[in-house]
Amino acid sequence: MLDRSSPGRDLTSFTLPEFGQLLATGDAWEPYQLLDRHGLRIEPVAVYFKDLLAADTPATTLRSYGNDLLR
What we know:
It is built from two helices and two strands; from the N terminus they run ββαα.
């Protein structure tokens, strides 16, 4: 239960560190790449995305999954 009498946490200056990024490639055969903090493609994720594409999964799902993996 929330304690409404306490001031709570100030999250206005909170920043989440970035450890990678999801890159939109514009390529229909590899629409997204998940990159590590050094800008290198993460190969196991690339294989996973290719499996999803082979199963006729829309690119928007790959984008969603890629963003989930970044969390």
